[in-house]
Amino acid sequence: MGPTLDIGGVVIIGGGGHAKVVIESLRASGQTVAAIVDADPTPRAVLGVPVVGDDAKLAELKGRGLSKLFVAIGDNRLRQVLGRKGRDMGFSLVNAIHPSAVISPTATIGEGVAIMAGVAINADSRVGDLAIVNTGAVVDHDCVLGAACHLGPASALAGTVTMGERAFLGVGARAIPGVSIGTDTIVGAGGVVARDLPDGVLAIGVPAKIKGDRR
């Protein structure tokens, strides 16, 4: 049966560095973390949380009464796939929101979302399921963040920016008001999005220019 686990605690998929930040955010918000499943099932602990196997272990954990899940995987597409798998198995996707984040009461936050320390999310913005808003990122008013997208640390969206599903803004990247960033598009670290970007491209620089097609 394995170790005794806190039935009310969260099961985390992923045992890397991102999981460490998620664990600390969950604990800071008063939640407990019961167990980790990881692609590397080697028995170990991550910040004191036991790694109990790979994701094949999820069914057993659900059968033992654990019902809360968080997917702490940086890869956007894989995070979305695993989140859907967990939901289909009957897990509830919880949010990991650090208490230092400032979130407007009119903002809408999906399920399975990571909102790290120092984040600001302003009026009437919407954050989709399984998104990551990383440390110190800013989301101004009326933005729409698609499912499983990722705002890197210290990145910023001005008002009315739209990000498609699984889009990624690197560390310190910026987007000016009203632009659209396509599904699966990556903006490199420090880039400034000054015009709409289509789906599935890599854009870098100031202003961000398309340098490759990811499709």
TrEMBL record:
Is the keyword Transferase in the record? yes
Q: What are the residue positions of the site described as Increases basicity of active site His?
A: 142
| Domain of life of the source | Bacteria
Q: Which residues cross the membrane?
A: none
Q: What UniProt keywords apply to this chain's record, in alphabetical order? A: Acyltransferase, Transferase
Q: Where does substrate bind?
A: 74
Q: Indicate yes or no for the key word Transferase.
A: yes
A single Gene Ontology molecular function, please? Answer: acyltransferase activity
Q: Which family does it belong to?
A: Belongs to the transferase hexapeptide repeat family.
Q: What protein name applies here?
A: Sugar O-acyltransferase, sialic acid O-acetyltransferase NeuD family
